[in-house]
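Q: How would the structure tokens look for this protein?
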Amino acid sequence: MDRPGKMVGVGQPVPIFPDLLVASIVESCPAGARTIVVVDGADAARPVEFASRTAEHVRSGGRSATVIDLHDYVRPASIRFEYSRHDELSYRTLWFDYDAVSREVIAPLRPGGRGHFLPRLWDEATDRSARARSVPAAPNEIVLIAGPMLLGRGLDVDLSVHLRLSETALRRRTDAAEEWTCEPLATYYDSLNRSDRSAGRPDFLVRWDHPDRPALEHRP
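A: Here is the predicted structure in token form.
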């Protein structure tokens, strides 16, 4: 996503140890309350893996944590592939069911909500309902929603993390079969940058080309 202009929230990058990054994110979550965090990043950045690592840190401190994989909230294949399996606009706008994430995960955990959420909605491999049951959330549960293009969707979250890949790293780390997603991903993040909307500015913008040597960019 190295395109002309600055990425959303770009500032001076500061190297940070991976464990310290995880700890800083957890420490930024309000204590004693249900907290929703999005870990945004292309699949090549492995956001679910990072979210799982963060959840492990949360649990080590005696607090409940759950990871929601955005790929468990894809739309049916009939919608995703309506205009072809590699349609870039569909990937940006129709592929993932962000409305369902808001309805089944976020809203239930807000004040007045039912207090239990749906961990999976759709099985992408079988293209059928995941047949998952709602699970109760602890009073101080941290739910991490991880996947691509989560910024700027109007999701009611408490904290946002973006694992930023340069375009070179994105293409290098993306599987050959999924290389067609690189262009729509770059277009999506560029659009956030051009709109300059505060809703698209992550709380933690992390340079992620080298996950063992990340750098944190502070917002101007």
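Residues 47-60 form the longest helix (14 residues).

The radius of gyration is 17 Å.

Upvote if useful.
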